Amino acid sequence: MSQRPYIVGNWKMHGTRAMLAEARAIDRASERLMTAEVALAPPFTLIHATRNEASLIGVGAQDCHAADGGAHTGDISAAMLKDAGASFCIVGHSERRADHGETDAIVRAKAEAALKVGLGVIICVGESEAQRDAGNAEDVVLGQIEGSLPTGYNADHISIAYEPVWAIGTGRTPTLEDIAAMHQAIRGKLVSLYAEAGANIRILYGGSVNAANAAEILAVKEVGGALVGGASLTAEKFLGVIAGAPDEALD
Ligand code: 13P
Asked: 65 catalytic, yes or no?
């Protein structure tokens, strides 16, 4: 498996076709920045166009429905995402857990649906500020992993994103020691759930990653990449994050 960090831009509910120029610029520059594996998760409406514009980077979705199809007005199945050109799907982002009441069981069902059609998945977990203040961050995150992670699938297709809710969009990040401790704990849980294959599952960090802090965060042990929100919306900012990938990660 590649040791290059996996750096994924989550555009959230941002982007019309005017933003395809940013995707194109990120794709073109990625040819030079081979120190990272780069991907974008634009809104559903831009997946197909982004795939057509970009030839090097991965293109994925931010969510899918757990069912194969049926009477689910407004929802999108994993097979539809694949048909539109997606190669992976983010599931369980804290904004979906909060805004749409997604439980661990729902997130797991979505992850299974995506894996079944051959998409990669990025399963998001992370504690709230109150949970961290109460000293429960690790229990919360490991519990989310236990509840949200499907077992019995090819672990190569699964990544975890640790995104503390209080660090998302706030400009605040945990200390490097806290990131290291949580990623280490997550690694232990992955190995207990997936045995040896769990040692290779990439664990991304997300929450206020930017060009200024990317290098130090990506250098933390067990940090296998980053899930980036605001700093992925322009090529200039996102390329600054990608430039933080350590050179020694080159294959
Ligand atoms: P920000 O990088 O804007 O904090 O968002 C992180 C995130 O939620 C990515 O999924």
From this structure: no
